[in-house]
Amino acid sequence: MYQRAATGAAVMARGVAGDQMALATPCREWDVSALLEHMSGGDAYLLGAMGVPGAGVGWPDPAAVTGCVEALRRPGALERSCMSPAGFEWSVAEAAGGTAMDQLIHTWDLAVAIGADRHLDGDVVEAVVEMFLPRMPEIGRQAGLVGPAVPVRAGASAQERLLGAMGRDPER
User: Fold this and answer.
1) Continuous segment of H or E residues that includes residue 83
2) What is the pLDDT of residues 112-142, one digit of tens each?
3) CA dihedral 37, 148, 108, 54 (to 10 degrees)
4) Domain residues of the chain, as ranges?
5) How far apart are CA 115 and CA 109, in angstroms?
6) Whose CA is closest to 167, among 129, 138, 135?
7) Cis status, amide bond into 134, omega within 30 of 0
8) Whole-number Cα distances in Å, 90 to 49, 110, 113
9) How far apart are CA 33 and CA 23, in angstroms?
10) Considering only CA atoms, which of 85, 121, 106 is closest in space to residue 16?
């Protein structure tokens, strides 16, 4: 799940042109440049949680994600504990899922900003929705990391429900 989300994010990031760096994103406080800086921290966060040096080197090259995924596959890596960005302890396995969610949401943010295809990997979206909705966005809101939920239409897709829960207007 993390590998697919992070690779998709890196591919989208590689499509950003130099003249798009100052464009506004759905994250009100971040332009494209700041969003990319944040997104590059996914591998760094997970590698740091596992005590692996070389965090985030080479991002947004999809091959850079490979080193993080290899570290996640080492025996015992997923069972380690680390601190979440919201300030609670969780396993590296949960952190990888949470980081996949972060990469998905910000891939959509980036797509909106640069006018790219907004469709996310449906299988990963479904897995993230199953793992984290409705609880995790509320924890993120309490920590000041996630904006207010945006209501979505009845019968909304998993992607629309995830985006709305994470404070994005999927109709945007």
Assistant:
1) strand 81-83
2) 999 999 999 999 999 999 999 988 888 888 9
3) 30
4) 2-165
5) 10
6) 138
7) yes
8) 10, 28, 32
9) 8
10) 106
Q: Which two tokens stand for residue 145?
A: 């990391």
Question: What Å distances lie between residue 148 and 29, 63, 66, 97, CA to CA?
Answer: 15, 35, 34, 21
Q: Which fold has domain 2-165?
A: Four Helix Bundle (Hemerythrin (Met), subunit A) (1.20.120)
Give 89-157 as a DSSP string: EEEHHHHHHHHHHHHHHHHHHHHHHHT------HHHHHHHHHHHTTHHHHHHHHTTSS-------TT--
Distance CA 159, CA 65 (A): 23
pLDDT tens per residue across span 45-59: 999 999 987 655 567
| 21: helix, strand or coil | coil
Strand partners, 31: 24
Low-confidence residues in the chain, pLDDT < 70: 54-58
For residue 156, the model assigns a pLDDT of 97
pTM greater than 0.90 = yes
Residue 55's pLDDT is: 58
